[in-house]
Amino acid sequence: MNMPRSFLFGAAWLFAAALLLTATVPPDAEANYTFLGKVDSTENTPSGLTLYCEGNNQVQITFLQPNLFRYTMLRADYAEPLLQEPLTLTAWESVPVECAQNDTLVRLKSSELELEIQKFPCRLTVRNKQGEVISKDDPGMGVGWDGKEVRCWRTITADERFLGLGEKVLAAPVTREGQYVKKVYLPKGRWLDANTEELYEGKQAVYVDALLDRLPLFLREGAIIPSREPVQFVDEKPLTKLILDVFPSAQLDTFRYYEDDGKSLDYRQGNYRITEFICAQQNGELHFEKRRVHDRYEAPERELEIRFHAVSKALRDIMLDYQPLQDYDYDDQKRILIVTIPDEGNVQNLTIR
Asked: Are 286 and 320 a contacting pair, CB within 8 Å?
């Protein structure tokens, strides 16, 4: 991950491009990372301000909308243009902000958000207009870097939750010692508890067990989530089975899976693979398709293990490329249908009736 980096923050949810959100700090992390030090001076800018930190490092904060701002860090020892994210911004209107500071704090406020910036060392806290904390840097660490790798250590606030993978996954970390039940607000849609397979309608708060060995995790209807068997490090062993957890909906849902060799810069010459997975459940049938969108990287041979969640037991037949498929598993209690097929060819179709 290259510096500099621009992060977008919103009032309802916190979005961070390639941020590592860390609940516990590894004991040796501070020895390897350089962190933003004290703020030496500030300069007001249209809809924001620039922080000049020790070591000639800079932080730019710009409000794009009253409830959305960009946080950009520029390192003095890394010579690239200030903004280097795949993000196109056109005709953002100027956002009125108020800025006030004293010897220890800077406060930057829009009509929806208030940013409190601690100067010694540089740490950021974000509050909504009700004064509730929605994002807070870890007091001891905050934003830091090791070479070109950037991390942001944050304090997980009470009842905080994260959406990811196209807003198809919701995680609700347990943040308090002795907490055995977690209250989770589910946005609009149908949600599946990934631990119990229980279904919930959205736009309500639900209570789930908060056990030590599992994270409260929910899949939104339409989710297609890739994973693999656990490994201790990236190159420990080749990927021989790609697992897809699918929570079908009546809509046409898609997910694009990107691959390259993970080592060279050959992807710049187009040597990579994009595989699109498509799923829809209509008229009592479940349709799933794999399609190569771009195929100039040869991945090792592997299987696809497709786990269809919340599937009725009333299955008559399963067809792979319009041929009967006899080898599949169905879990009656969890209502999960597992189909394992070789990942071969540019197009493969599954039909489940």
From this structure: no
pLDDT (0 to 100) of residue 142: 81
8 A C-beta contact, residue 351 and residue 279:
no
pLDDT in tens, 241-271: 999 999 999 889 999 999 999 888 898 899 9
Contact residues for 73 (Cβ-Cβ < 8 A; gap 6+): 3, 4, 5, 36, 57, 58, 59, 60, 143, 150
CATH number at residue 133: 2.60.40.1760
pLDDT at position 234 is: 77
| Angstrom distance (rounded) from CA 193 to CA 189 | 13
What's the CA gap between 156 and 21, in Å, rounded?
9
Three-state secondary structure readout of 86-104? CCCCCCCCCCCCEEEECCC
- Cα gap 52→318, rounded to integer Å: 62
| pLDDT: which is higher, 301 or 15 | 301
Give the predicted TM-score (pTM) of the model: 0.61
Strand blocks (E) in 29-96: 34-35, 39-45, 48-53, 57-65, 68-74
In 3-state terms, what secondary structure has residue 257? strand
Q: Which of 83, 57, 84, 82 is CA-nearest to residue 144? A: 57
pLDDT 10s digits, 266-305: 988 999 999 999 999 888 889 999 999 999 999 989 999 9
260 and 313: one domain? yes
135: part of which helix (H) or strand (E)? strand 133-136
CA atoms within 13 Å, Cβ hemisphere of 330: 14
Domain extent, residue 300, equals 224-352
Q: How far apart are the first and last CA of the chain?
A: 45
Q: Which residue has the tokens 């989770």?
A: 184
Give the CA distances from residue 56 to residues 43, 75, 99, 166, 334, in Å, rounded to whole numbers and listed in that order: 14, 7, 22, 36, 56
- Spatial separation of the C-alpha atoms in residues 163 and 172, rounded to whole Å: 9
* Same domain? 230 vs 205: no
β-strand pairing of 241-246 with 303-308: parallel
Name the domain boundary from 153, 180, 198: 153
pLDDT at residue 87 above 70?
Answer: no
